[in-house]
From TrEMBL:
Name of the protein this chain belongs to: Substrate-binding domain-containing protein
GO molecular function, one term: transcription cis-regulatory region binding
HTH lacI-type domain: residues covered: 16-72
UniProt keywords, alphabetically: DNA-binding, Repressor, Transcription, Transcription regulation
Lineage: Bacteria, Bacillati, Actinomycetota, Actinomycetes, Streptosporangiales
Organism whose genome encodes this protein: Actinomadura rayongensis
InterPro entries: HTH_LacI, LacI/GalR-like_sensor, Lambda_DNA-bd_dom_sf, Peripla_BP_I
Cross-referenced PROSITE patterns: HTH_LACI_1 (PS00356), HTH_LACI_2 (PS50932)
PANTHER family: HTH-TYPE TRANSCRIPTIONAL REPRESSOR PURR-RELATED, LACI-RELATED TRANSCRIPTIONAL REPRESSOR
Ranges that cross the membrane: none
Domain of life of the native organism: Bacteria
């Protein structure tokens, strides 16, 4: 027995127009517009208003958000413009934080990923300005100084994960110094005193701030800073692998790495030399990039960048719920201790 032919799918119904609402309510299109936009000064009787709203409900009419914004001069939209954040491991966290905070306060987040293209960025900001967004969160995928796009001056804005040296520009950024301090303290708390610091070759707030925090932690523990224990490496797995020999030549018991990718390369270099983490050398990374840190063996102790909080706090600053004055909000980078640290008594004995 053959099954009957399934019913043909219904064509999607076109959107209901304001003219159809006006016809159903027996009023003019202008009257419908005045009712929708809640113009209290318009001379429209309560019975007529109720009739218009009844027609809107019966027909399922949805007012055009952009047109309503233009009439009312406000919006429930907030823009988020980012360079390459939507294609990075941390992308979802900043967007998620901003989106959660937006929803909490009755706003919808409009997200534009520009991939660093200046023309795409200009078009994205222009589109958001046309929608009369409440404001724009402007974010970069890594912490750095920027030149503020001129068009942002046409609305309220906050920089997230970036900053500008210009008066009155608000920014929410990670506290790189506190992160560098927290990384060193994970090792100092286990009794390590000779700790290498593998930094990046790329000038950045992270390069400067994390080393500064590292030095502060050493000073607080009464340990003299030794510049010979600071080594530069490419900020990736190959860089961590390549610097392994130089690290071991310093006879250290522990290493703070600029990021988790460098730490992953250092793991490989130590393993190829027959050394164990943390039994021979304790290792701490930075970023808490979970696809790396939580899946290395042993799991990598690291410091988390507060990406979710960057998005959420940036949104709150934009809405005036948090007040940084005219300066920057620096968010702490919390340590995440896993299995890659151990007391130096179990570490590789110093050479010579």
């Amino acid at each position: 027995m053959t099954e009957p032919n399934p019913p043909a799918p219904r064509a999607r119904r076109r959107p209901v127009t304001m003219r159809e609402v006006a016809s159903a309510a027996g009023v003019s299109v202008a009257t419908v517009s005045l009712v929708i936009n809640d113009k209290k000064t318009a001379r429209i009787g309560e019975a007529t208003r109720q009739r218009v709203w009844a027609a809107i409900r019966d027909l399922g009419y949805r007012p055009n958000a952009m047109a309503k914004n233009l009439v009312q001069g406000d919006s429930r939209f907030i823009g988020l413009v980012a360079d390459a954040i939507a294609t990075t491991p941390f992308a979802g966290q900043i967007i998620h934080g901003a989106q959660d905070e937006a929803w909490k306060h009755g706003y919808v987040l409009l997200v534009a990923n520009t991939e660093g293209n200046d023309d795409a960025e200009a078009e994205a900001i222009a589109m958001m300005l046309e929608h009369k967004v409440r404001g724009i969160v402007y974010s970069t995928w890594y912490h750095r100084p920027i030149e503020v796009p001129g068009s942002l001056a046409e609305t309220d804005f906050v920089l997230v994960n970036c900053f500008a040296d210009a008066p009155g520009v608000r920014a929410v950024v990670p506290d790189e110094v506190s992160g560098g301090r927290a990384a060193a303290e994970l090792l100092l708390a286990r009794g390590h005193r000779r700790i290498a610091f593998v930094n990046t070759t790329t000038p950045s707030p992270a390069r400067e701030g994390r080393l500064r925090g590292h030095r502060e932690a050493l000073a607080a523990a009464g340990i003299a800073f030794d510049p010979a224990l600071v080594l530069d490496a490419r900020p990736d797995q190959a860089g961590g692998y390549a610097v392994t020999g130089d690290v071991l030549a310093r006879d250290v018991t522990a290493v703070c790495c600029h990021n988790d990718r460098v730490a992953m390369g250092l793991y490989d270099g130590l393993r190829d030399r027959g050394l164990r983490v943390p039994g021979d050398v304790a290792v701490v990374g930075f970023d808490n990039q979970e696809v790396i840190a939580a899946h290395l063996r042993p799991a990598l102790s690291t410091v988390a960048l507060p990406h979710y909080d960057l998005g959420a706090v940036g949104l709150r600053v934009l809405l005036g719920l948090d007040d940084p004055g005219d300066g920057r909000v620096a968010l702490a980078c919390p340590p995440v201790e896993r299995d890659s640290v151990a007391a130096p008594s179990a570490a590789r004995p110093a050479a010579g």
